[in-house]
Amino acid sequence: MARPSPAGASAEAKVHGGPGFSKKHLLGIADLNAYEILDLLDRAERMIPVSRQERKVLPTLAGKTQINLFFEPSTRTQGSFEIAGKRLGALVMNMSVKTSSVTKGETLIDTAATLNAMRPDVIVVRHSAAGAVELLSQKVGCSVINAGDGAHEHPTQALLDALTIRRHKGRLLGLTVAICGDIANSRVARSNLLLLGALQIRTRVIAPKTLLPRGIENMATEVFTDMREGLKGADVVMMLRLQHERAAGKMIPSVREYYRFYGLDEEKLAFAKPDAIVMHPGPMNRGVEIDPAIADGERSVITDQVEMGVAVRMAVLDALIAGRNEANP
Amino acid sequence: MSRPLVIENARIVDPASGLDAVGVLEVEDGRIASVTTGTAKRAATAERIDARGLMLAPGLIDMRVFTGEPGREYRETLATASAAAAAGGVTSFVLMPDTLPVIDDGALVDFLVRRAKATAGVNVLPAAAISKGLKGEEITEFGLLKEAGAVCFADGRHSIQSSALLRAAFSYAANFDMPVVHHAADAALVGEGVMNEGHFASVLGLKGIPAEAETIPLSRDLQLALLTGVRYHAAQISTAASVELMAAAKQRSRAVSCGISINNLALNENDVGAYRTFFKLSPPLRSEDDRQAMVEGVRTGIIDVIHSDHDPQDSEVKRQPFAEASDGAIGLETLFAAALRLVHSGEVELMTVLRALTQRPAEILGLSSGRLAVGAPADFILVDLDYPWQVSEKNFRSRSRNSSFEGARLAGKVMATYVAGQKVFEHPRGDAA
Hints:
The complex is a heterodimer. Chain A is α/β, with parallel strands linked by helices. Chain A has helices at residues 8-15, 34-52, 75-87, 104-117, 132-137, 155-169, 187-198, 227-231, 244-247, 255-262, 266-269, 292-295, 302-327, and strands at 65-70, 91-96, 122-127, 143-149, 176-180, 202-206, 222-224, 236-239, 277-279. Chain A has a 5-stranded parallel beta sheet. Chain A has a 4-stranded parallel beta sheet with strand order 2-1-3-4. Chains A and B meet through helix 4 and helix 5 of A and helix 6 of B.
């Protein structure tokens, strides 16, 4: 897969080859149409070589300030955004805000006003409450990227998933994507369903009824409660993390029962297409939703997802700040 | 006492007597002296008001109002709530006991009665808590609270989960012939829910509240009400299935009744839009199907009372992510105009809407007001039924701004409000709202 790295200068020219990106924020996939989604995927594609070359820099954001504001702990997403910003030459500052349930919202608005006064160019936000990132975007003057808000959206995850699928399958159109697990509480599932839906790709959700939200039949092409049925003929198997500490005893009786019926093992995976790929947004619960042998096996593209994550976040940062400014000075 | 007052040429609408005709209302010593159709015969000593083109109706009785006095005066005081009420045509309101401290003691009821007399222009009717501290564990001193001036018992925003405690409260309230007003919500089914359960909540990634969180405890309440014979009022229902439960219970007892917030009659879950916290309410705004069933319930009289559910909240607790924001919206000043939407749209007769705002609450609470009868308190309003206006937060008398009708275009405005024959509000001339 590794190709010779193009020189930084030519990569930069390619990045700015197309028209500017029209949005100020990336709050959710719901705000994007199919063209904008494909544009971001193409931009991300062009970012991949930057991270593979020796000097991993493409300083389109030199002199810009990026703040990663995380109200929920996240090692991987925060790290991915940090690397993406730094490879584009931005000054990146990480802020992790510890929150108690009492002071959560107060901290959000107050912190927004404080950070805004520091004149950042972009704020990347994760928050435990749905809609919190949109609320914050109304309070600041710079671009805002949603790095996950409650059970609402996680747009860069859906973009990196789509990019990973497209690179492995060579296409998106005509594929069948099965999303399995805790759909009800998953922002990853929502953003993926919105993205795949916008591109008119067949989606299936598979979960026990206790983990399916009301009205899911309007969000996915098909709904299954039997994993074998749901996986039949799937090109992509997307597993979700189960918050088993919260769910056990309430939404599911036990981890072992969940694994028996909804954990991805060889026997169930055999129902999918022979060349189906296996994805997981991480962090994984090996032995809860996925057999360790599959997670680390040859059909798993989980580490590729992490690499595509950096490319997608570079593309989004570039499109919102550099790309946008160039088009709309 | 005061000079007699004569209101002439008004269209007098009184649900209690069924009167709807142009006529004359005479007031003496704060009470209604006569209601006659045609023209006035009164001596020239009386103060005469020509109300041509206006409707004269009993003052509204709002069965569900929260304030911040005592304890959170920055949200609302009795004085500001009273000013808002007068501007909205509300001449009496039932004050919920959810204050700091909770109104669960006779001395506190007495304080409210005195405080209202000193600072409020409209009638403030305190509801005392059913359970001490609104904790749902022990019942309060119903007899002493009644003596102090409580008009009913209610646990405000709280819902008692223990069926045994409710049974005891209902029995004991029946003992003192006092109505119990209860908000039916199953705490475990509500759980972390913040809006109506359904597709829309799922799209927003918000936890939903199923209709069953209301219908299951409502069904229990109604069974216990029939068992104990209490005068039971379901504080506020929000689902189509709840109307069916009420209809069935009313077949068996005349002592059960229910109310609905104007919000649940005029708005639906789609109004939440992009996490607009002024539409975060309890019970939540439901589906359009539910709303239509509610309107039908008002039309048929299964739903007895329309109230404002006036609940002032400051921006500190409302400018929050949706799930973390407080419930509630103010409504005293928009209650009547919002209710008139149902009349203007042809869904419900004017007389029916007025009955749910005047006669029925008076009957449920055992008040002599809420009707234009000789000897009744001269609490009445003059209304321009077609007056167009737009709701704007800068015109609110209420101390809080959390209105779910901000920016709404409404038709119908209270032009003057009288309590015991005294004018407590007059629509300012040249004021857009």
